[in-house]
């Protein structure tokens, strides 16, 4: 069993999910339960004298299966503070993108749904034969971005896919297609400045990461000429079970201008420095974490409020039946911290995110591809 470890508190930061500002200092506590590392998080203030562990944290579970029967949830995102009051989605809502249709053929899902705790979700958007990926974000303007990698039969990919721009009422307003920048948009991270956004997109079909610079107005978005490929050279290939393997999770550290890339095929996480202003590819960047004991094909990636990184293992690479569907926490210097399993079956973990509910409580959310559901944990404050 791993020894329990208390992690130091960090000052507030700008996270990549909605770039929401975290007001209190956040403390993470790791505890070991039944031999499995569990990520436990608690909130406190900088002057709090004692740190209170919370096991288990309060959580709610919700189905991700909409009325049309879509399956295989991939992306998950929190709706940030600042979206227009007339938007269908409101601050604190959690949305999920589905990759499979009711047939369970990969790359055929068509819906983005809003989670309803302990009940069926509400469909926010529905398209046609899309295969919506983990590349999902809600901007402060109310527009929603989502990637798609469609197939004809669950196996044959219709390249290059695209990035959809959906208005605050759930209507498609634009499809961004550019094979030079968007070749299988698999995940994304956003610098959201309101009328301007930089969108980092991992391209699973060619092993690159693009930065799509967008001008945003009430009428929609416009791609700016400064958009470019900023990283390349990640392993990418087709896969009989996972459909395709390549660079996936992206997490952006605004304080240090570092983009972190979870490369599934390389079974490693890389750091790309100077990502916001880069005008050419810097290769794969610097490898910061390679751990065959705890990494089993890292997929989604998030920057946690304590400055650590959290990734979801998809088990398509370096699988371990004794460690199925693990979410792993590690430092940006490559030190393993903790892990917890989403599901006893392999291949269940994918999208994850940190964000806030409508009452500004810090939350952590993750999908379960096996049960077609998502869990949202609320991380309670020490000074309640």
Task: Please provide a written account of the structure.
By secondary structure, the chain is an all-beta fold. The protein has a single domain (60-378), classed as TolB, C-terminal domain (Neuraminidase, 6 Propeller). The protein has no helices and 30 strands. The strands form eight sheets. Strands 13, 14, 15, 16 and 17 form a five-stranded antiparallel β-sheet that branches. It has a four-stranded antiparallel β-sheet with strand order 4-30-29-28, with no helix packed on it. A hairpin with a 3-residue loop joins β13 (185-192) and β14. The radius of gyration is 19 Å and the shape is globular. Mean pLDDT is 87; it is low at 1-54.
Q: What is the highest CATH level, the class?
A: Mainly Beta
SS field, number of helical segments: 0
Structural class: mainly beta
Q: Stretches where pLDDT falls below 50 for ≥5 residues?
A: 1-54
CATH evolutionary superfamily: TolB, C-terminal domain
Largest sheet report:
5 strands, antiparallel
**Content of β-strand:** over 45%
Overall tally of structural domains: 1
The shape is: globular
Number of DSSP strand runs: 30
Identify the CATH architecture. Answer: 6 Propeller
**Mean pLDDT, rounded to whole units?**
87
Radius of gyration: 19 Å
| Head-to-tail CA distance between termini | 32 Å
Question: What's the CATH topology label?
Answer: Neuraminidase
Which features does this protein show?
384 residues; mainly beta; Neuraminidase; 5-stranded antiparallel β-sheet; 0% helix; disordered N terminus
What is the fold's blueprint, element by element?
Layout: E1 5-6, E2 26-33, E3 36-43, E4 58-63, E5 71-78, E6 94-100, E7 111-114, E8 122-126, E9 132-138, E10 144-148, E11 162-166, E12 172-176, E13 185-192, E14 196-203, E15 208-217, E16 220-223, E17 228-232, E18 237-239, E19 243-245, E20 247-253, E21 258-263, E22 268-273, E23 286-289, E24 298-303, E25 309-313, E26 326-330, E27 336-341, E28 349-356, E29 362-368, E30 373-378
């Amino acid at each position: 069993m791993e020894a329990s470890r208390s992690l130091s508190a960090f000052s507030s930061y700008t996270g990549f999910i909605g770039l929401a500002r975290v007001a209190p200092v956040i403390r993470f506590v790791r505890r070991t339960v039944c031999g499995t590392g569990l990520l436990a998080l608690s909130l406190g203030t900088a002057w709090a004298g004692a740190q209170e562990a919370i096991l288990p944290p309060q959580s709610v579970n919700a189905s991700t299966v909409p009325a049309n029967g879509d399956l295989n949830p991939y992306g998950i995102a929190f709706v940030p503070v600042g979206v227009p009051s007339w938007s269908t989605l409101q601050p604190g809502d959690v949305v999920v993108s589905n990759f499979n249709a009711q047939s369970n053929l990969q790359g055929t899902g068509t819906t983005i749904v809003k989670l309803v705790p302990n009940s069926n979700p509400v469909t926010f958007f529905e398209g046609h034969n899309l295969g919506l990926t983990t590349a999902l974000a809600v901007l402060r303007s109310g527009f929603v971005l989502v990637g798609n990698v469609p197939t004809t039969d669950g196996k044959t990919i219709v390249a290059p896919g695209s990035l959809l721009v959906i208005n605050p009422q759930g209507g498609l307003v634009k499809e961004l297609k550019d094979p030079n920048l968007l070749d299988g948009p698999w995940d994304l991270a956003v610098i959201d400045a309101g009328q301007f956004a930089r969108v980092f997109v991992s391209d699973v079909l060619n092993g690159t990461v693009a930065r799509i610079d967008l001008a945003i107005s009430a009428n929609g978005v416009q791609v700016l000429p400064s958009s470019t490929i900023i990283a390349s050279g990640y392993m990418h290939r087709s896969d009989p079970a996972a459909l395709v393997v390549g660079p996936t999770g992206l997490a952006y550290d605004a304080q240090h201008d570092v983009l972190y890339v979870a490369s599934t095929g390389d079974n490693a996480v890389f750091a790309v420095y100077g990502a916001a202003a880069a005008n050419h590819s810097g290769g794969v960047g610097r490898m910061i974490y390679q751990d065959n004991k705890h990494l089993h094909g890292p997929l989604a990636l998030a920057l946690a409020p304590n400055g650590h990184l959290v990734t979801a293992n998809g088990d398509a690479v370096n699988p371990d039946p004794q460690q199925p569907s693990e979410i792993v926490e590690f430092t940006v210097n490559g030190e393993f911290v903790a892990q917890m399993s989403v599901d006893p079956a392999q291949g269940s973990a994918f999208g994850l995110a940190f964000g806030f509910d409508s009452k500004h409580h810090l939350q952590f959310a993750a999908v379960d591809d096996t049960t077609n559901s998502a869990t949202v944990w609320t991380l309670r404050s020490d000074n309640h």
